[in-house]
Amino acid sequence: MRILLIQLKRIGDTLLTTPVLSALREHAPQARLTLALNASTAALAPALDADRILVRGDHFWRALATTRFDIALDFTGNDRSAVVTALSRAPRRITWARFARKPLRRLIYNEFVASSVRDRHTADHHTDLLRALDIHVEDVPLALRLPAAAQAEADQTLAAGGIATPFAVVHAGTARPEKYWLPERWAEVIAHLRTDHCLPVVLTGARDSAERAHLDAIQRALECSGCDCLDLAGKLSLLGTAAVLARARLLCAVDSAPAHFADALGTPLVVLFGPTDPFHWRPRGTNSRVVSAPQRSSMAEISTESVRSAIDDLAGPPGEFLAKSREDPS
Predict the structure, then answer these.
(1) Residue 295: left (phi > 0), alpha (psi -120 to 50), or beta?
(2) Domain end: 99, 133, 167, which one?
(3) Claim to verify: residue 224 and residue 169 sit in the same structural domain
(4) Residues sharing a CB contact under 8 Å with residue 112, sequence separation 6 or more, in sequence order
(5) Full residue range of the structural domain in which residue 38 is found
(6) pLDDT in tens, the chain (330 residues)
(7) Could you give phi then psi for residue 165, rounded to 5 degrees?
(8) ∠58-62-65 over CA atoms, to 5°?
């Protein structure tokens, strides 16, 4: 049985589709899984448990035309994914019931699954589509398989920066500027990790110019406190960043892809939500804490005290990570 899974959205959406791959591996181990991705998420491919990955732009349409699929599962629901579904020529073409009202959708798909995107965590909403295959699962965790190259990149980069375990990571950037927290508050959190928890701090981020300006503002605010951190923003690949997070004792981040990485890798996590809804995007691991702006308002409504409290709640009393690391140097 050949199954095509179509996820043409962003990195976070792709990570939150990994529970579908895990559920299919468990409940349909004989299936051959092909995952269709956008070029913007192709860097995730080596860490995803699919037998084949098709990336838009890399002979994508030819591969679709020359492969026989039995089932197509469309998790995206836009016009482009509808075309992909149609070209798959799979006898069973499945998507969400809410898309049935769109033009021509009933000509493209022949099975529709009811699932309330409003009432379900995004990962659970994704696995709901498997009900069409008589697979009923709940709370399947995110999953990543970090390749050796990404792990080596992380080890070499951390060693070059003089960072040894234990350490914390702060990921303050995102593609959406409305999720930016105030630089001076990030500086206070970094100082708290450095001074009170005795944890060196690694700053991660992308090469985007707006994000770089935001991180530079954090660095300037941090200089006023007399603390420092290792700035690796823009210096790591996507999976290299994930591998750094896998080695961290703690990640503190805004709602962004690295928060999903940490959730998948079991890294303790404090995540800040402002305008986005934590109900749909929150980490589901027990080793995490969510700090939300009231009534999904501005990030400026999140206080430094609330973030520090979440760190202390997750990390234990100040210095406990350091004591643990002496007992368990891994």
Answers:
(1) left
(2) 133
(3) yes
(4) 94, 95, 96, 97, 99, 100
(5) 2-133
(6) 999 999 999 999 999 999 999 999 999 999 999 999 999 999 999 999 999 999 998 689 999 989 999 999 999 999 999 999 999 999 999 999 999 999 899 999 999 999 999 999 999 999 999 999 999 999 999 999 999 999 999 999 999 999 998 999 999 999 898 999 999 999 999 999 999 999 999 999 998 999 999 999 999 999 887 888 999 999 999 999 999 999 999 999 999 999 999 999 999 999 999 999 999 999 998 899 999 999 889 999 999 999 999 999 998 766 565 555 445 544
(7) -70, 150
(8) 140
CATH code of the domain covering residue 82: 3.40.50.2000
Tokens in use for 9?
């959205």
Which of 114, 103, 132 shows the shortest CA–CA distance to 23?
132
Alpha carbons 238 and 11: distance in angstroms, whole number: 10
What's the CA dihedral at 96, 98, 103, 107 to 10 degrees?
40
User: What are the backbone dihedrals phi and psi of residue 152, each rounded to the nearest 5 degrees, phi first?
Assistant: -65, -40
Distance from C-alpha of 86 to C-alpha of 109, rounded to nearest angstrom:
8
Give yes or no for a contact between 283 and 260, defined as CB atoms under 8 angstroms apart.
yes
Are 55 and 103 within one domain? yes
What does each C-alpha distance from 239 to 41, 49, 204, 251 come to in angstroms? 11, 14, 12, 16
Same domain as 199, residue 125: no
Whole-structure pTM over 0.90, yes or no? Answer: yes
**Rounded Cα distance, 115 and 129, in Å:** 8
